[in-house]
Design goal:
This protein is mainly alpha-helical. Helix content is 68%, strand content 1%. Helix 2 crosses helix 8, helix 3 packs across helix 8 and helix 14 runs antiparallel to helix 15. It is globular.
């Protein structure tokens, strides 16, 4: 049995988090047994769960950590205030840890490295002091934002007032001191535990169970179930493949309320510069992953079985790579010209548009050819 390194325990985090869990698992049931549950207390939980959960996913994660869009100051302020109420540290520290996670995924420098075990990735890294201690060198861009600096300096006060005191006050206004206690336990304690645990599950469960349609080069996995409880964050394999996209659930049918909220904010003029990965690039990532999985199955014992179909697949793969390289160059040229459209002549802009359309058509044709060749190989393996 492994002994606990008591000298490395982060006592402040450990005592606080464990106290919240005990209050949620013991104190809340006692309260509900004594006073029952009314619709107002349930509404407090849901409203604060949504406000703080979205502030983590939309604000802490996609806005501050990845800069996947720009937001007006009211949006930044709201996500900083309610993000603090989730008691997951300041946005500055949260973003610093998360950027390090993406840069060093599945390695010793990854703060919540899943290779150190499910428990470590889930909560252990918070309960124990990190070695070496983390710094904020990778979030200098965020330190330039006065609102981010303000929240970092006053994080605990903001978290306490918004995360625990406010739901208690709202509960007290509804039903006196029993309502205040219920608001504290439901809208405060239980909600904090729920938001935290679902956030932690992205670091643990979504690096353990799920699908990898975009890349198997790291442990990140897609989980539609986790997406339902985390405002769309469960599509973690896509996120690791394309971390700067403001969408996690990139398919139209995928559940991603964070994406929808960002889109709505853009329509209201409160968000701009939404970063999207082109559909062609996403499709190519899926193709490369399928090709990688197929090649891993084609060992010498079965290669003769599919031999007639293999040369065509290899040829279409090479053509697809060449076509994609040309499309990528045209896509970069097109986007640069789009940003400086007024500086380009009408003839030059028309030429760039034509070249980009032709490159896109050629790429889509190459994709169709690969898909047909891939289907032939799969049929031969069936």
């Amino acid at each position: 049995m492994t002994s606990i390194p008591w000298d490395r325990v982060n006592w402040r985090n450990s005592v606080f988090l464990m106290s919240l869990i005990v209050l949620a698992l013991v104190g809340l049931p006692i309260y509900l047994w004594q006073y029952g549950l009314d619709w107002y207390q349930a509404a407090l939980f849901l409203v604060f769960f949504s406000a703080t959960g979205l502030s983590i996913t939309l604000g802490y994660h996609r806005l501050f950590s990845h800069r996947s869009f720009r937001a007006a100051w009211p949006v930044r302020l709201a996500t900083l205030v309610f993000g603090a109420a989730a008691f997951e540290n300041s946005a500055l520290c949260w973003a610093s840890d998360h950027r390090r996670h993406h840069k060093h995924t599945d390695s010793d420098d990854d703060p919540y490295d899943i290779s150190k075990g499910f428990w470590h990735a889930h909560i252990g890294w918070i309960l124990f002091k990190m070695e070496p201690a983390t710094n904020l060198d990778n979030v200098k861009d965020l330190q330039a934002d006065p609102l981010v600096r303000w929240q970092h300096q006053h994080y605990l006060a903001i978290a306490g007032v918004c995360g625990l005191l406010l739901p208690a006050v709202l509960g007290g206004l509804w039903a006196g001191w029993p309502g205040a206690l219920g608001g504290f336990l439901m809208g405060g304690v239980a909600r904090i535990v729920a938001v935290q645990q679902f956030t932690f599950f992205i670091n643990s469960l979504c690096h353990t169970i799920g699908r990898q349609p975009y890349s198997s080069r790291n442990t990140a996995k897609d989980s539609a179930i986790m997406a339902f409880f985390t405002f769309g964050e469960g599509y973690h394999n896509y996120h690791h493949a394309f971390q700067y996209d403001y969408r996690n659930g990139v398919k139209p049918w995928q559940f991603d309320p964070t994406k929808w909220t960002i889109w709505l904010l853009a329509r209201l003029g409160l968000a701009s510069d939404l970063r999207r990965v082109p559909a062609e690039r996403i499709l190519l990532a899926e193709i490369e992953e399928k090709q990688r999985r197929l090649e891993s199955r084609l060992h010498p014992a079965i290669a003769p079985k599919v031999h007639p179909a293999l040369p065509r697949l290899q040829a279409t793969k090479v053509r697809l790579q060449e076509t994609f390289a040309r499309w990528e160059a045209r896509e970069i040229e097109y986007r640069q010209a789009l940003q400086n459209r007024l500086a380009s002549s009408r003839e030059r802009w028309a030429l760039i548009q034509r070249d980009f359309r032709e490159a896109t058509a050629a790429l889509r044709s190459a994709i169709r050819e690969w898909q047909e060749a891939y289907a032939h190989v799969e049929n031969a393996l069936a």
